[in-house]
């Protein structure tokens, strides 16, 4: 089975970062553990490079504008971004922006990290994981992270008539 960069990231997130984010681990032992779990050294290296870039983009949350009635700028996607992030993904990102789950800076970080997955196309489920990892990485975003987490893992209910 061909493991992808996202597979390695999800493994790291679910097995190391999510359960005990404060545990101190050195990079070498983490990498060795992931390789021992069956991932290729090349994919593990790419995953750590991806995480390094995410950590470099860590920013302080920007408070909402004083006048929320004034619409913010509209994000136009580059051709390559539009090819990789289909209409459903772009619509989901707009939904997160409109509902205050992401601010404009976080949105840019999500798009940049999604593009860095090195996939021809990023589907909605993959994008949701990227959003979750970006929010997890942002200080002071516990409420947005909790909302996104519950949104991702909520049970499919019966249709409302």
Describe the 3D structure.
The chain is mostly helical and 161 residues long. The chain folds into two domains: 1-56; 74-153. It is 59% helix and 0% strand. The protein has eight helices and no strands. The chain has helices at residues 5-17, 27-36, 41-56, 79-84, 87-98, 104-115, 124-137, 142-153. The longest helix is centred in the N-terminal third of the chain and has 16 residues, at 41-56. It is globular and about 45 Å long. The termini are far apart.
Characteristic key phrases:
59% helix; single chain; 2 domains; 8 helices; disordered C terminus; 161 residues; mainly alpha
CA gyration radius, whole angstroms: 17 Å
Unreliable runs:
157-161
State the shape.
Answer: globular
Count of strand segments: 0
Short summary:
Helices cover 59% and strands 0% of the residues.
Task: List strands and helices in order, with pairings.
Blueprint: H1 5-17, H2 27-36, H3 41-56, H4 79-84, H5 87-98, H6 104-115, H7 124-137, H8 142-153
């Amino acid at each position: 089975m061909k493991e992808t960069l996202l597979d390695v990231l999800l493994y790291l997130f679910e097995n190391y970062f999510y359960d005990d984010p404060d545990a101190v681990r050195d990079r070498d032992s983490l990498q060795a553990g992931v390789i021992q779990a069956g991932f290729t050294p090349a994919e593990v290296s790419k995953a750590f490079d991806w995480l390094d870039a995410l950590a470099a983009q860590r920013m302080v949350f920007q408070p909402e504008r004083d006048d929320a009635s004034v619409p913010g700028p509209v994000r136009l996607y580059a051709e390559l971004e539009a090819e990789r992030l289909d209409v459903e993904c772009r619509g989901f990102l707009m939904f997160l922006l409109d509902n205050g789950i992401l601010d404009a800076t976080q949105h840019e970080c999500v798009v940049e990290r999604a593009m860095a997955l090195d996939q021809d196309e990023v589907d909605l489920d993959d994008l949701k994981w990227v959003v979750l990892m970006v929010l997890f990485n942002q200080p002071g975003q516990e409420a947005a992270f909790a909302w996104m987490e519950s949104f991702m893992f909520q049970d499919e209910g019966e249709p409302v008539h």
